[in-house]
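=== Structural record ===
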Amino acid sequence: MFSLSRADYDAVLLDLDGVVTETAKIHAKCWKRLFDEYLGDNSFDIERDYLMYVDGRPRYEGVKSFLESREIFLSYGTPEDSPDTETVCGLGNKKNQLFHEYLKNHEVEAYPDAIVFLRALKLAKFKTAVVSSSKNCEQVVRAAKLEDRFDTRVDGKDSECMGLHGKPDPDIFLEAASRLNVQPHRSVVVEDAIAGVEAGKRGKFGFVIGMNRHDTSQILLEHGAHIVINSFNQIEVKS
């Protein structure tokens, strides 16, 4: 059991997909469908490619990263590209279309242990932020009925408007800390993605917790997590 105390930290900054909500597996399936349709069946391996190239990254960067791993270099295009356009942005928009189609027909679930953890943080007077590369963050938070669980939100829309670099750069976590008026060294980052724990490390945050919902404990430790947990039930929150 790991203890998280207000004597040591002022805020907890949490990724959304795969940490708070069960949407990471939805994203992974959408990525697989996108790339399998574009490159051929079984071109995208969820266990390896999702975690290594797209998880936690801004959508277009995820497209670019995966394609370049296969030595495919498309024109970047623009965010206005049609989902049928063969550009990085076009493919990214196609993936977003697939994700929205899923959301129309399915409920968004929050992990029960995350709900309990967020409640404990509030009771202990921690400040909280949801920090996500996704431009769908607000929609997912609302669908999961988590609006009142966070003091602020920094997401992919903010990154685009403010010119923030995506994970593994620490910009969006640093912006969240600034909005909460807390120092990075007094803040905890919780991430399930390789790019996310790298961002926490680069931003010199006080503590980086890796969430092992994908059986990725060792790789999260190697990329910057101080500890890795399988559930928020392994954390004792102290005021």
About this structure: Residues 2-22+109-238 form a domain with the Rossmann fold fold (CATH 3.40.50.1000). Strands lie at 2-5, 11-14, 127-131, 152-154, 187-191, 207-211, 227-229, 235-238. The CA atoms of residues 36 and 43 lie 5 Å apart. The mean pLDDT is 95.
